[in-house]
Design a protein that fits this description.
The protein is an alpha+beta fold. It is built from five helices and eight strands. Helix 1 packs across helix 4.
Length: 271
């Protein structure tokens, strides 16, 4: 029996994919699918490689399912006391205070590099932002990496599909938007970039991926990539369209979203 694959019900980015429980899968899937979209279009002069960056993230031990990973402190304390007694060699040992330490998460984040085959030079870096990039120490680390790219001969394409967190800085005042795509062509000596702000009611903008000097850039249909990820990942099975997405939308946007989901047959009650 053939099962019909799901279709992204939104005209652009699906805000339910921003859910923290889904985003790691969404992020990696988007990077892989974008590589698969670009690679055949750039042959034979360029390769598109998937790179990996690791973030060590410190979080307080509060709330959520993370607490389930904290072993029982009393059991650990008893075991530690037994080990100290065995190692004491007759010495009187001071009694320590058992304290809870911050939990450390190791987050893997993928990004793309477009590499010119002939010279092995990295021509374009493609970054898809995660919550880690938009707050705390992860933001500082990413901004340092971003600065290195912007002051190099490598082009930067930066995709922000997350409403939460502080957008990456630009010096030009901009109207508020849900999402952003930045295309920074390193050949532009005036140190400017093309920014594409858009919202959940809009289709994700098509952009031109900059390439090496003498080569035309390549047009990219990012919406087809997002839609393909939603379909291939069966994310509809993990999304509850009866509730509103997080972060909260404005009242006007909630009305629009409710009407859209009702028309698509995905919501059957008032939100």
């Amino acid at each position: 029996m053939t099962t019909q694959l799901p279709t992204n019900p939104f005209p652009g980015m699906n805000p339910y994919l921003e859910d923290p429980g889904l985003w790691p899968d969404v992020h990696q899937s988007l990077m892989v699918r974008l590589r698969d979209y670009l690679a055949p279009r750039l042959r034979p002069d360029y390769r598109v490689t998937i790179q990996e960056r690791m973030y060590v993230v410190s979080e307080p031990n509060v709330g959520g399912s993370r607490d389930a990973r904290i072993p029982d402190v009393s059991i650990l304390s008893a075991a530690a006391t037994a080990r100290r007694e065995r190692a004491s060699e007759g010495l009187a040992l001071a009694e320590p205070v058992v304290v809870q330490l911050p939990q450390m998460d190791l987050e893997k984040q993928l990004y793309l590099e477009i590499v010119r085959v002939r010279s092995r030079a990295i021509i374009t870096a493609v970054e898809l932002l995660s919550p880690t990039n938009k707050s705390g120490s992860g933001r500082r680390i990413y901004q340092a990496k971003r600065g290195q790219i912007l002051y190099s001969t490598t082009h930067l394409v930066e995709i922000d599909l997350l409403r939460a967190g502080q957008p990456m800085p630009v010096l030009t005042p901009l109207p508020a938007s849900h999402y952003r795509i930045l295309v920074a062509d390193a050949r532009r000596t005036e140190h400017v970039g093309d920014l594409y702000p858009f919202g959940i009611r809009q289709t994700t903008p098509n952009i031109v991926m900059p390439l090496a000097e003498g080569d035309e850039g390549i047009a990219v249909d990012l919406q087809s990539v997002i839609d393909g990820v939603y379909e291939a990942g069966s994310f509809d099975l993990d999304i509850d369209y009866q509730r509103d997405p997080e972060p909260p939308l404005s009242d006007d946007e909630r009305i629009w979203l409710d009407d859209l989901l009702r028309k698509k047959g995905l919501r059957n009650r008032a939100s």
